[in-house]
Amino acid sequence: MAHLLHIDSSPRGDRSVSRSLTQDFVGEWTSKHPDSTVSYRDLGHNPVPFVTEPQIAAAFSDPSTHTPEQAEAIRLSNDLVDEFLAANCYVLGVPMYNFGVPAAFKAYIDQIVRVGRTFAIDEQGYKGLVHGKKLLAIVSQGGDYSEDSPAQSYNMQEPYLKLIFGFIGITDVTIVAANNMMGSEDTRSQSVADAKAAMQDVIAQWSAS
Ligand SMILES: Cc1cc2nc3c(=O)[nH]c(=O)nc-3n(C[C@H](O)[C@H](O)[C@H](O)COP(=O)(O)O)c2cc1C
Fold first, then answer.
1. What is the whole-number distance in angstroms between the Cα of residue 10 and the centre of ligand 1?
2. Which residue of 7, 77, 130, 197 has the fewest CB atoms within a 10 Å radius of its CB?
């Protein structure tokens, strides 16, 4: 049975393209798979904090040695990792900000990419610990970064998402882009329609596996 973790990271509400698309995806998915369960985290409206020095000390030491301050500092990160690992499918809404991801999304990544929890280090190097999961990132972009477009090399957002989730072991990563959101109305509607069609393909693929 699928347990979906739905995350939004746009600070915008009704005007957010990424929010509207993740909501469509989750609505469609749950209507096709009513036995699925969904958890929701809204980073755009309820951001998680940046990491702190006591938290870093706690993340890289044995929990049995933690001071009360360190134990408290790592608590939220532990809860976020537990929530992340409890899911087997992820649907993320991620706007492009300054060619990368919004700070609120990056702050979340800093909380869940944790040694011994989501990745390990051994003599061979780094190893992802999160296996057998599927991830869909729905990205919204003002410009056009599609393959062979002049701005393609400015796109630090999509390669980053693939890299960071691959780093923790998630290799089944699909990115659906609603691009050109600062273009004409026609261009925008075409892009949203293309993104919705691509989301349908993801639903079909996930349903078949
Ligand atoms: C602070 C900020 C930075 C942005 N930086 C970029 C950018 O580097 N490239 C781009 O194509 N669009 C950029 N945009 C436009 C957003 O990616 C676009 O409006 C997108 O639809 C936002 O997602 P949302 O609709 O879910 O809020 C930026 C928007 C804001 C508010």
1. 9
2. 197
Which among 98, 180, 188, 189 is the best mutation to test ligand 1's pocket, defined by most ligand atoms within 8 Å of the CB?
Answer: 98
CA-closest residue to ligand 1 atom 3: 97
- The model's pLDDT over 5-42, given as tens digits with 9 standing for 90+, comes to 999 999 999 999 999 999 999 999 999 999 999 999 99
Q: Please tell me the chain's helix, strand, coil percentages from 3-state DSSP, rounded to the nearest 5.
A: 45, 20, 35
Identity of the amino acid at 13: G
Chain segment 72-118, per-residue pLDDT in tens: 999 999 999 999 999 999 999 999 999 999 999 999 999 999 999 99
Closest atom of ligand 1 to 99 CA is 8
Report the SS3 class of residue 10. Answer: coil
Do the Cβ atoms of 22 and 203 come closer than 8 Å?
no
Does this model's pTM top 0.90? My answer is yes
Computed over every residue of the chain, the mean pLDDT equals 97
Residues at CB less than 6 angstroms from ligand 1 = 10, 12, 16-19, 95-99, 140-143, 181
